[in-house]
Amino acid sequence: MRPFVSVTGLRKSYGAHRVLDGIDLTIAQGTVFSLLGPNGAGKTTTVQILSTLIKANAGEIRVAGHDLAKEPDKVRAAIGVTGQFSAVDSFLTGEENLRLMADLLHLGRAKGRTRARELLERFDLTDAARKPAATYSGGMRRRLDLAMTVVGTPRLIFLDEPTTGLDPRSRRTMWQIVRDLVRQDGVTIFLTTQYLEEADELADRIALLSQGRLVAEGSPGELKRMVPGGHVVVRFADPDGYRRAASHLRVTSRDEESLTVQIPGTGVSTLRELLERLDGQAIDVAELSVHTPDLDDVFLALTEESSR
Ligand SMILES: Nc1ncnc2c1ncn2[C@@H]1O[C@H](COP(=O)(O)OP(=O)(O)OP(=O)(O)O)[C@@H](O)[C@H]1O
């Protein structure tokens, strides 16, 4: 697939503080790319540079087929940004906000009205269309904000922490809207989020930023395979079983108080062998659970490694 965004050797410093230290990335058209990183890693700085708000010190950036340094206006015309600084005017209704945006984009009266109605429907805001945005819940406000970005039919949308503070239901509605934008409209999404679960749900590719460098990049599945977090936790029925098992098995950690041990690996053969051994020794198991690594494990392992 054709890259919609390509970045090579991106650097940015504030005085002596090197915030981005040589970033390379490509984002395919019609996909969701998520940039993850601990606080202060440089995510917002990256978004600000790619959305033409601030200038890089070095690097080549192409967005939507345009060189960002040479044709920032063409890049600006292809993108939309939504996030922490909402464009929503609380005194206006949802519909008025959308029509105002359509006016700003010179869509024309009739087209603006149709577009507003269409977006209210699509973003599940029709019932609240005539109410002032001040009365909206957090989730409705976020949806309106994104709808306002979509009025201009951007081909790339920067979504900065789109569901921070939302309840699980509103979060799911937002996720579905984002998926539809990608699937139905072919929009490319650049997502920053502090929820690893969100990146796991939405992103085709994830890049992990730590101290100004990308320390890992891949699909959620590929990233999970990079860390050996998978293990089985076994809780024994009695202290005798616990002690015998702990001395017979290759355990990575044990806890005498809760009578549990951790055994590395989650494969079927590992499990079969484990159960056969316990059975052979007549050791009673009270509970067994399989823990496959999630993005939290990856995030912690890789960002810790890079800060060492
Ligand atoms: N205008 C500025 N002047 C000086 N330093 C800055 C400026 N903007 C950002 N920084 C510094 O750059 C670093 C990266 O900041 P940035 O906001 O990009 O991080 P982030 O990954 O978005 O963090 P968070 O998750 O907390 O939003 C931080 O150490 C920050 O203090």
TrEMBL record:
Keywords: Antibiotic resistance, ATP-binding, Cell membrane, Membrane, Nucleotide-binding, Translocase, Transport. The keyword Kinase does not apply. Residues 5-236 form the ABC transporter domain. It is found in: Cell membrane. GO terms for molecular function: ATP binding; ATP hydrolysis activity. It comes from the Bacteria. Its main location: membrane. The keyword ATP-binding applies. One of its GO terms (biological process) is daunorubicin transport. GO terms for cellular component: plasma membrane. SMART domains: AAA. SUPFAM superfamilies: P-loop containing nucleoside triphosphate hydrolases. InterPro entries: AAA+_ATPase, ABC_transporter-like_ATP-bd, ABC_transporter-like_CS, ABC_transporter_ATP-binding, DrrA, DrrA1/2-like_C, P-loop_NTPase. It is a peripheral membrane protein. NCBIfam families: drrA. Belongs to the ABC transporter superfamily. Drug exporter-1 (DrugE1) (TC 3.A.1.105) family. This is ABC-2 type transport system ATP-binding protein. It comes from Nonomuraea fuscirosea.
